[in-house]
Design a protein that fits this description.
With about 325 residues, this protein is α/β, with parallel strands linked by helices. It has a single domain, classed as Ureohydrolase domain (Arginase, Chain A). The radius of gyration is 18 Å and the shape is globular. The structure holds manganese (II) ion. The site of manganese (II) ion has 6 residues, from loops. Manganese (II) ion binds next to loops.
């Protein structure tokens, strides 16, 4: 970018990185902000999520002391906002699929890591379809308070209430954080339709790591609906459910998975900034940071960081 002036411009990308750390050609990670919330049934507002995440990211440190790692070194390109398709969610899914396919191309013999910034959870479908065609052994780790397993809802099979059900048509899906289901979804899980680790609000505990890993394939796409978190730290979602995950539980889970599996893409969805305090946008931005770190950090290093964290606690 040439501005023709030496004024102190703030770049409007994730972490406000200078061109040499955010050019598409030299970036290992591509973030796609998608301000889409047209199938939302309860409260709209997730369309404001991507910009709130980017603005909050300007205040993050480039360096992460927990991991002893600086993600800006891998190159993070942020695309412009992807325009919503007003012809309905199926056409929006298609638009996202094509966009992700075009951007996931080869990068130094490796595929780029794609991170989608929602928007409502529907944005995951196109991203997963695209990446599953590049990564033949991919599964989805799906963190959400809701099952999202309805076959269709409000006359569409492509809405936010059916996201996990659609993903299952593409690749295996492993759910963590789920504590709200309709009868149809409960029956679907009972019949073995989805690998769902139900979340117990009375005793909020992560599933056993080995059991979780046994359900995940070597390549993992992480899909996060922020309502998996407890509303006390994440009020800025359209459908908050009490009794959810803590910040440490979520990042600890992701760190442990990253130490054993290759994370090939991710999304952070459903941030509706007007529904909560500004700390929610900051949390979402920091979560995106952690996901970039976990998907680009050498696995052995993620393991080392885990050991160090364990040693500190012990
Ligand atoms: Mn949800």
């Amino acid at each position: 970018m040439s501005t023709g002036s030496a004024a102190p411009w703030i770049p409007t990308n994730f972490l406000a990185l200078p061109p040499e750390q955010s050019d598409l050609a030299s970036s290992r990670v591509v973030l796609i902000p998608i301000p889409y919330d047209s199938s939302t049934s309860y409260r709209a507002g997730a369309r404001e999520g991507p910009m709130a995440i980017l603005r909050a990211s300007y205040n993050l440190e480039d360096y992460d002391h927990e991991l002893d790692y600086d993600v800006s070194q891998v190159g993070i390109h942020t695309t412009p906002l992807l325009e919503p398709h007003m012809g309905g969610p199926r056409l929006m899914v298609e638009r996202i699929r094509e966009t992700v396919l075009a951007l996931a191309g080869d990068h130094r013999d490796e595929h780029r890591i794609i991170g989608v910034l929602g928007g409502e959870h529907t944005v995951s479908i196109g991203a997963v379809q695209a990446l599953a065609s590049r990564h033949r052994d991919m599964s989805v780790l799906y963190l959400d308070a809701h099952g999202d397993l309805r076959n269709e809802y409000m006359s569409t099979p492509w809405g936010h209430a059916s996201v996990a059900r659609r993903l299952l048509e593409t690749c295996p899906v492993v759910q963590v954080g789920v504590r709200s289901l309709c009868e149809e979804e409960a029956g679907f899980i009972r019949r073995g339709g989805a690998a769902t680790f139900l979340w117990d609000p009375e005793e909020p505990r992560l599933p056993d790591l080995d059991e979780l890993l046994s359900r995940l394939t070597p390549e993992v796409y992480v899909s996060i609906d922020l309502d998996a978190l407890d509303p006390s730290i994440m009020a800025a979602v359209g459908t908050p459910e009490p009794g959810g995950m803590s910040w440490g539980q979520m990042t600890g889970l992701l760190r442990r998975v990253a130490a054993h599996r290759r994370i090939v893409g991710f999304d952070v969805t459903e941030l509706s900034p007007e529904d909560g305090p500004p700390s929610c946008s900051y949390l979402a931005a920091k979560l995106v940071y952690k996901l970039i770190a976990f998907s680009t950090l050498e696995r052995s290093k993620a393991g080392l960081a885990a050991a160090a964290a364990g040693a500190r606690r012990g």
